Amino acid sequence: MQHIKNYINGVLTEPVSKKYLDNFCPSTGKVYSHIPDSDENDVELAYQAAKQAFPEWSVTPKEKRSQYLLKIASLIEANLDRLALAESIDNGKPVKLAKVVDIPRAAANFHFYGTGILHYASHAHAMENSAINYTLRQPVGVAGCISPWNLPLYLFTWKIAPALAAGCTVVAKPSEVTPMTAFLLSELCIEAGLPAGVLNIVHGLGAKVGNAIVSHKNIPLISFTGGTVTGKQIASIAAPMFKKLSLELGGKNPNVIFADCDYEKMLTTTINSSFSNQGQICLCGSRIFVEKKIYDKFKKDFVAKTKELVVGDPSHEKTKVGAIVSKPHFEKILSYIELAKTEGGTVLCGGKPHGMTGDFKDGYYIEPTVIEGLSYDCRTNQEEIFGPVVTITPFETEEEALMMANSTIYGLASIVWTQDLTKAHRVANHLHAGIVWINCWLLRDLRTPFGGVKASGVGREGGFEALDFFTEPKNVCIKL
Ligand code: NDP
What we know:
Aldehyde Dehydrogenase, Chain A, domain 2; seven-stranded mixed beta sheet; six-stranded mixed beta sheet; 15 helices; binds NADPH dihydro-nicotinamide-adenine-dinucleotide phosphate; alpha/beta; 2 domains
């Protein structure tokens, strides 16, 4: 059985402890590889390698850094099929989805920052005849990057690419639940000739490896994507150490549907925004609010379309909904469906595990689930479930829709469906979220700042904001 390795100082290495953890394939429920059970000793080795590499990497001309990033991007593209399959086996998502979303986007991250750094500018300010001020942007140092399991390579590279482009060296930890594509990335970095120590990948548990990165006294910056509870814990360690911190956290996103929407487009997109990646995208719209005038029609059509979704073997071309990422997460989602029932919800479809046979009988499949009849402020509608479960709720007025949409502690994303231009802008203006999609979902120009408000996080990734994050401004003032 394959043993995944850490990537430290340019070499694939065993964990210091020589201990390994089981890596489960969610579609079969079976162990299919082992991953390093690393600890603070491995993080220290990774830090030392990154520290040694920093002086040279930070002054490597940006054109040269760019070439490395573009080379990695092209290697990801060249290995699209292999990476997509690996991500599907590791995560349970349909291979097709990994092929069109996750892996191309991972390549795009390297491409975007490999070219973006060439156009990243600092500023100069003249004080007429008395002085000139200029601002240098200098890489912060060794960056700590920690990512989750839902879009494994996509989110891992979303941090690593801008960090490397900006001239930081990196100690990174992918989720222990989905380590395979990060391991394959380390092989591609070796193939690309990335200098030793510039990127170091340490596999293992959050409580050990993640915690060791966050608490390391010489890692001055943490870029984290994951759950709000973990983010809170990280902030409590990093903030008193005055670390630079970017936290991309959970969501409970509203999808507000007005009666005057383009109905067919809305219906098709709402199926995707509800159930793509088994509903395990932080940007999925899990609370659907529908104007009363079309509520009954929507309910009938939406439930019918949800029932048509093919659940099953992620490698099948027709599969739309694959396996849930892990057994604990599978159980958590089912427990929320039970909670919804006790809170007065009616399950309109799904609501139970999806039975499979043969090799897949122990996999973690849940039928796409639609629930109605819940109050907007019950736990099911307030807590992040992060699975193929949505609630539908009617509303009468725009004010009521906004009140319910804004009622959670989260503020990551939101979706609005209407053909009324003025209403669209007005509602977008009043939604408390980092991003508002009008008549679409998941469309994004990588130049825009990305992130949430309230308990969905602090800081922004994407665009030049990410390069700002991985660099420090130093102002120099010369008297004339
Ligand atoms: P977790 O918060 O459980 O884990 C995220 C990462 O942090 C993993 O690598 C995890 O390691 C690690 N980790 C866990 N505990 C610690 C710790 N004490 N110190 C440092 N690192 C730690 O999130 P999930 O992996 O379960 O991901 C799902 C969550 O991510 C959802 O809440 C989702 O909304 C959110 N998310 C947010 C996005 C955004 O952009 N805002 C995008 C995507 C997801 P390990 O897995 O080994 O425990």
